Automatic annotation (TrEMBL):
Name recorded for this polypeptide: Uncharacterized protein YjiS (DUF1127 family)
Taxonomic placement: Bacteria, Pseudomonadati, Pseudomonadota, Alphaproteobacteria, Hyphomicrobiales
Domain of life: Bacteria
Amino acid sequence: MLDRPFQRMALRAIADDPHLLRDLGLTREEALREASKPFWR
């Protein structure tokens, strides 16, 4: 559970890099939606 905030910060940081998002199989919208979730979800 403690890793979630850091993972979401990382998602937010790569949301503008289409190459990294494509490697992860995510769209920018999906990354930002996940990054904006509260840490307890």
